[in-house]
Amino acid sequence: MTLTEYINTYYAGNQSAFAKACEVKPQQVTKWINGNFIVVNGELYSPRRELPFVSCSE
Questions:
Q1: Which residue, of 18, 40, 49, 51, is most buried by count of CB atoms within 10 Å of its CB?
Q2: How far apart are CA 14 and CA 49, in angstroms?
């Protein structure tokens, strides 16, 4: 899920509360959101690059 979705779900949309829980400044959360970070199994990930499409052939 996107970081925004995570904050909306678990912090009622309160980015400041999320920042406090992560022990970072709210500006850092804004950077993560603008950087399209995602949450997978409770871990924050940043996109590095888009992978090329690979079709599966039999």
A1: 18
A2: 29
CA distance 41 to 54: 25
Nearest residue to 2 (alpha-carbon basis) of 25, 36, 28: 36
Position 50 confidence tier, pLDDT thresholds 50, 70, 90: confident
pLDDT-based confidence at 48, cuts 50/70/90? confident
- Cβ–Cβ contacts within 10 Å for residue 55, how many? 4
> Rounded CA gap, 39 and 34, in Å?
14
Q: Cβ-count burial of 18 within 10 angstroms (0-12 exposed, 13-18 middle, 19+ buried)?
A: buried
